[in-house]
Amino acid sequence: MQVATKAYGYIEVDERQKITFSQGLFGFETCKDYVLLDAEQQPFYWLQSIDSKDAAFVLINPFQFRPDYEVDIDNEELAEIGVSNPEKVLIFAIVTIPSDGGPMTANLQGPLVINRDTRCGRQVVLTNPCWKIKHDVLAELAAAGRGGPC
């Protein structure tokens, strides 16, 4: 299928890259269908709305820069996207890249949880006070080998 993207113009994507967020994402509740793309720069991904070219997000696997990241998700929330086996889940954090040159941050309090089999997802809110909406990605990538608490 062909998708209009914010970063790459019109591109052809495989139907298997489509992810449905039945509740949308926080602040983008009307955008339900997205495609998950590899970004040109690793370790990032691009989540592009099919519904709106302007609704696009840079994502990162939070475990790449926070090996100690813990995602405690309510079983009801997992059931809503058809997850019965936690190994079938992809977890992403939305990355913010400020235009003013400030640090690139990732939202670890509101990760995206995607069922790999059904390609259904949802954004959840974690209650652990360790996880904030702004974690400095580069600083934490540099410190990733050290581990440690929040």
Walkthrough of the structure:
- There is one protein chain.
- The protein is mainly β and 150 residues long.
- It has a single domain, classed as BH3618-like.
- It contains 2 helices and 10 strands; from the N terminus they run E-E-E-E-E-E-H-E-E-E-E-H.
- It is globular, with a radius of gyration of 15 Å.
- It starts with a strand and ends in a 7-residue tail after the last helix.
- The mean pLDDT is 91.
Top-tier CATH class: Mainly Beta
Find the CATH topology.
BH3618-like
Oligomer state of the chains in this structure: single chain
Mean pLDDT: 91
State which percent range the strand residues make up: 35-45%
Largest sheet: 7 strands, mixed, barrel
Order of helices and strands: EEEEEEHEEEEH
Count the beta strands: 10
CATH architecture descriptor text: Roll
Specify the number of helices.
Answer: 2
- Number of folding domains? 1
What is the CATH superfamily classification?
BH3618-like
Any chance you could write out the topology, listing elements then pairs?
Blueprint: E1 2-5, E2 9-12, E3 18-21, E4 33-38, E5 44-49, E6 56-60, H1 75-80, E7 89-96, E8 105-115, E9 120-123, E10 135-136, H2 137-143
Parallel strand pairs: 3-9
Antiparallel strand pairs: 1-2, 3-4, 4-5, 5-6, 6-7, 7-8, 8-9, 8-10
